[in-house]
Amino acid sequence: MTGYVFEGIELLSATGPVKQLFILLHGAGGQPSDLLPLAETLGAAFPQAAFLLPEGFAPFDSGDGRQWFSINGVTDENRSARVAAAMPTLHALVLQAQDRCKVMQPDTALVGFSQGATMALEYAIAHDGRVGRVLAFSGRFATLPEKAPEYTTLHLLHGKDDRVIPVEHAYAAYERLAQRQGDATLDVASSVGHEIHPALADRAVYRLQTCIPLRTWKIALSSA
Questions:
Q1: Is residue 194 flagged as an active site residue?
Q2: From residue 82, how far is each of 66, 71, 75, 88, 202 by CA, in Å?
């Protein structure tokens, strides 16, 4: 796969062939190492998984760190265009990672925090089914989708006291996905702000281990 050169942190399975792939996207102004605690939590539950923690595609506008798209002058009107401009590079990253780790789409999870969560959510809309799961911590859609993904399950995880991306965005996203018959879950942690709190990380593991994708139920019911 050409067109993207990986920069970031790789954590490969030490227990045999890779069975799952997690790609973790940090927030604006962050760096890959910010997500190492989350990768460790997920790795304890999925010891045969590979974890790729790429760095944002551009330097952060307001200091150190990286970002996936510019936040200078960002508005509800121009956010979608900025996400769309970054989407081809993210798609190349996902394709390259799956090819290199020899992991299929249903066994791939795209995980994001804050701006990284926005990229992950919008990826599920733009490339339905290319990843099996999206975990969005403290994020939001750039624009609420008109159509829900059919082949990707979305897990929304948010702090109730988030002052950066208010929890109302998570409620609105979940409501819209439910209206469009999407496959989604929502977990809100009280007294938690704009962070990947351990309670939310543990909840993400629970969702990954216990939630059977809605599409699997539909196939089973149609075969019965």
A1: yes
A2: 15, 9, 10, 12, 32
Catalytic choice (13, 26, 114, 155): 114
Digit-coded pLDDT (tens) for 15-67: 789 999 999 999 999 999 999 999 999 999 999 999 999 999 999 998 899 99
Supply the DSSP string of 130-182, one letter for each residue: SSSEEEEES---SS--SS--SS-EEEEEEETT-SSS-THHHHHHHHHHHHTT-
Active-site annotation holder among 26, 155, 158, 162: 162
State whether residue 17 is helix, strand or coil: coil
Q: Which of 127, 155, 158, 194 is catalytic?
A: 194
| Predicted model pTM | 0.94
